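Table S2 (text version). Query chain:
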Amino acid sequence: MNKILITAGALTGLLVSGAVLAQTAPEVVVTTHKVVEKSVGRTSTGIPIVDVSLSYGVNVADLDPATHRGALDLEKRVRDAAMDACKELGNRYPGATPSDAECAKAATDKAMAKVHELEAGAAKK
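Corresponding structure-token output:
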């Protein structure tokens, strides 16, 4: 499978870290995914199918996810990052699937697991 991973922003993998001296600011990573043409294999005409993804880091250093407002702002940032990344992939690869909206929903749903972890951890402090 040919996979292109394009990263933007200060990406630290799939980790959400606490803001401690000498550590990077916390962030949530939103990764989008589209299939350009079905080398996950080849199409019936022999064209390689290429799987592409794009990741954006969402910095949460200026938010307090333990508060209602902070949690809402974080979730909005994640949704916005997912849509921006999916639109960028859509512009780079017209005709790729899924649609921008479906791509953004899938990326948001996946990233929300980390968001909810971060919110729960902040609420316990």
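Notes on Table S2: Residues 3-124 form one domain. Strands lie at 3-8, 27-37, 50-59.
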